[in-house]
Design goal:
The complex is a heterodimer of chains A (110) and B (189). Chain A contains two helices and eight strands, in the order E-E-E-H-E-E-E-H-E-E. Chain A is α+β, with helices and mostly antiparallel strands and 110 residues long. In chain A, the strands form three sheets. Chain A has a four-stranded antiparallel beta sheet with strand order 3-4-5-6. The longest helix of chain A is centred in the last third of the chain and has 10 residues. Chain B is α+β, with helices and mostly antiparallel strands and 189 residues long. Helices cover 22% and strands 32% of the residues of chain B. A six-stranded antiparallel beta sheet of chain B has the order 1-2-8-11-10-9, with helices on one face. Chain B has a five-stranded antiparallel beta sheet with strand order 4-5-6-3-7, covered by helices on one side. In chain B, 44% of the residues are buried. Classes of the chains: A alpha+beta (110), B alpha+beta (189). At the A-B interface, loops of A face strand 9 of B.
Chain lengths: 110, 189
Amino acid sequence: MLILECPYCGVHAEETELHGGGEAHLKRFGPGSSDDDFHDYLFMRENPRGVHLERWRHVNGCGKWFHAARCTQTLEVFATYSAQTTEPPQEVKDKISAKRPGWSWREFKG
Amino acid sequence: MSNAVSVLNGASFSGLVKVADSGLGGMITLRGDHASATLQAVVKSVTGAEVPAIRKITFGAAGAVAWMTPDELLLLVDYAEVDAVVAKLSEALAGEHHLAVNVSDARACFSVEGEAASEVIAKVAPVDLAPGKFVAGDFRRTRFSQIAAAFWLDEAGVYHVVCFRSVGEYMFNLLKTAAHPQSKVGVYA
């Protein structure tokens, strides 16, 4: 079972209290962007085996959105962090690097 | 004026524990900055309670205040006083970013009382209620089986459960089932 600590209310919430929100740190390409950019924004998603950055919502709790860095292979959770960011904070990157040296995910690296 | 009644009009059930509809209670959703001195002062003046710490509930002479989210509080006051309290909050917080709404009739409240109360709630909610893990004054929003709910424990060892009124009957039936006299597990005994 996946247990994530909500960074807003500090609850160690198990999966049934949460709702997955898909991939984290998407950059939106809206009106005026090229067809290729718009296509990639809509459809191209990471599906890694290993380190993954995701959005989650503490739906049966405080209701806030947050980010989680976890491993899709082992269900190990490296860290959860605020939703008010466009990239993982350095301390989160460091935590992932400590467990998975040399990791990379989209443009982010350890 | 219509005759207001709570969702199950005071129904109760005795099994492993006593489950009862708590009757009419006033509830106010108050959103705003918890750290604001104005907000803290007006909350204290209407309930007699301090703004609670994270995942806590505080009690005062005229009501209680529960921590809902980093920017939301739940005020529990007397049902008849709600409109007056909302008016007071709105007046005191004018000019500050806030929201104060009377949600009394949108909610249902139940009490779960008895030695096996922790066990009955732990059967339906994903919360660790082992002795010492959830103490008087703690407040938790979570789910009860399929519905969203919140609960707290008071000094007398009674759990109070709050959910939406529209699912009040589901909640009562759920707690009744969990408190069936022959369903004792004894996990916290």
